[in-house]
Amino acid sequence: MSSQVEQRADAEKQIQRNPHPDFKKVEGSREPFDSEAKWNIKQTVKPDWKLGDGANDGGASLKIPHVEIDPYEEGRPAAFNYKLLISGIVPRPIGFVSTRSKDGKSTNLAPFSYTQVINHDPPMFIIGYAGGFDNAKDSLKNLTESGECVINIISEHFIEAANATSINAPYGVSEWALSGLTPAPCTTVKASRVREAVFSVEGKLESTKEFESRATPGKKTGVLAIIEGTRFWVREDAINQERNLIDPAILRPMSRLGGITYGRVTEGLELPRPDYGEAVEHNEEAKRLVKPKADNQ
């Protein structure tokens, strides 16, 4: 096992992401996955909510004090900030990233929950990698050398296989083979997309930015990759006729929560974006709420 792989294994032990000494025993005590749960849309919590009403909990959230945390306080391990952030910034979309080395001899497939779309014209995405270029994960190494990748969205029907690709395999060992997932050809990049994925995006690397630790100056702790989408792939039963909407009932996306927890999407609610003219200017009660911006807001 390479020193880099050993370092990552040690870091995982320090984070203690898995809280269960015997996970399979704990899992066996839980209810089975509900495959019959269907996507449905409910009312919002308070359908009669109006401007000025504030939170819909009747003020209950105002009665509980907050704890202030300095991310750099003396004695606070950086791993604490990691665990806090991944449990609080939820649910996070998972970029299931496929890459190929520049010489084409090695591939990588791995999930990254530091992933987001940031623009649509051009289509732009970000992926955050833990560790600097001096300890680059295989995905980052391939991405920076080839300048290409595919971002696949994980769905329920292959969540176990996708999670399996997070294994700390040595460089050159195929996550495709370990997961049993199916590579499919792309048009604008040499990396393969995941054939089982309902939605995939081919992408070209636009730029990267490396970050340095505040707690340990000189230590590189992360890399941000900015990627331009160059081609979309959508399963034909999930896309509408105009090819501009994906059906969540078909996509059935999985998200990342804290620790080793994933989330699924089975319910939604709809809320129209309010129009100021209609909601305020034509509403005498709402007009009384209009005040200039002030300090402490």
Count every beta strand, where a strand is a DSSP E run of 2 or more residues: 14
Any idea what the shape is?
globular
Number of helical regions: 9
Strand order of the largest sheet: 4-3-7-10-11-6-5
Taken as a percent bin, the fraction of beta residues is 25-35%
Q: N-to-C SSE series?
A: HHEHEEEEEHEHHEEEEHEEEHH
In words, what does this structure look like?
The chain has 297 residues and is α+β, with helices and mostly antiparallel strands. The chain has helices spanning 3-15, 23-28, 78-88, 138-146, 159-164, 175-179, 248-251, 276-281, 284-287; strands spanning 40-42, 92-93, 95-100, 107-112, 115-120, 123-130, 148-153, 183-184, 193-194, 199-212, 220-234, 254-256, 262-264, 267-269. Strands 4-3-7-10-11-6-5 form a 7-stranded antiparallel sheet, with helices on one face. The termini are far apart. The model has no long low-confidence stretch (mean pLDDT 93).
In short:
The protein has helices spanning 3-15, 23-28, 78-88, 138-146, 159-164, 175-179, 248-251, 276-281, 284-287, and strands at 40-42, 92-93, 95-100, 107-112, 115-120, 123-130, 148-153, 183-184, 193-194, 199-212, 220-234, 254-256, 262-264, 267-269.
